[in-house]
Design a protein that fits this description.
Length: 183
């Protein structure tokens, strides 16, 4: 599974509809300080289900919505969509009927977040499972936050094992087992 496109609307500094095509291979994001490079990575983490507003550098989750500037009014909603290239059918079986998987997260002020997968309403945990099986996701070692390398080096063995399990892509199995045990 490969992220092939990222679409933003009203997310942080991306007030105008913005769409980025992510070609195979290495992608670099360059630009002056404050132009929104970190906001882009946060958008990726957010659409994959991030629940911590702190890791979005936001005082509350509503603060990911464009907050206005001297010349533009604030917005009331933010939406991020990623398109996953699933032509190799590596997604979990329930999503494996299409070449592209489209995941959208939308937040409205004081109304919280809603997710859609291929246009259909989805739960946060559906999105989480989708990415856990791909050994990625909002909290995965595939997205390295500032200071995270140090955390891994200093982690206790148990915590380090979780990081390795996430990297190996078996966290999704643990989640499903946990859900099955609850039934
Ligand atoms: P650096 O090179 O310093 O790391 P960067 O390119 O990573 O910079 P970001 O941190 O992604 O920049 O973007 C910061 C900009 O995003 C700031 O100008 C900030 O005002 C703006 N910003 C963050 N949240 C919002 C919001 N909710 N509404 C409007 N603008 C926002
Ligand atoms: Mg930055």
């Amino acid at each position: 599974m490969r992220i092939s496109r990222l679409r933003l609307l009203g997310f942080k500094s991306f007030v105008e509809p913005t769409e980025l095509v992510i070609e195979p291979g290495l992608t670099g994001v360059v630009g002056p300080n404050g132009c929104g490079k970190s906001n882009l990575l946060e958008a990726l983490r957010w659409v994959m289900g991030e629940t911590s507003h702190k890791s979005m550098r936001a005082a509350a989750m509503d603060d990911v919505i464009f907050s206005g500037t001297s010349s533009r009014p604030a917005r009331n909603l933010a939406e991020v969509t990623i398109f996953i290239d699933n032509s190799e059918r590596l997604a979990p079986v329930e999503f494996n009927d299409s070449d592209t998987i489209e995941i959208t997260r939308r937040i409205e002020r004081e109304a919280g977040s809603a997710y859609r997968i291929n246009g259909r309403e989805a739960r946060a945990r559906d999105v989480k499972i989708l990415f856990e099986d791909a050994a990625t996701g909002s909290r995965s070692p595939a997205l390295v936050r500032q200071g995270q390398i140090g955390d891994i080096v200093n982690a206790k063995p148990e915590a380090r094992r979780r990081i390795l399990e996430d990297a190996a892509g078996i966290a999704g199995l643990h989640s499903r087992r946990h859900e099955a045990e609850l039934r």
